[in-house]
Amino acid sequence: MKIISGGQTGVDRAALDAAQALGIPCGGFCPRGRRAEDGRIPERYPLVELASSAYAARTRANVEAADATLVLVQ
């Protein structure tokens, strides 16, 4: 099992924090520049930067990399 996340604020980072605390492999893709709603995604999250800064590209890459996906929207 591996937790894949885009590193956005809220549940994205909570999933990465929980995975790291429990020793579960984690990672994923994030926008160029580690772009997030609150600025730059911290380096402690093992994410691969995409060439695109678009959130949609990040979401697509993470969905394609996963065997199953949980998408939460507001």
From TrEMBL:
SUPFAM superfamilies: MCP/YpsA-like. Pfam families: cpYpsA (PF12694). InterPro entries: cpYpsA. This is Molybdenum cofactor carrier.
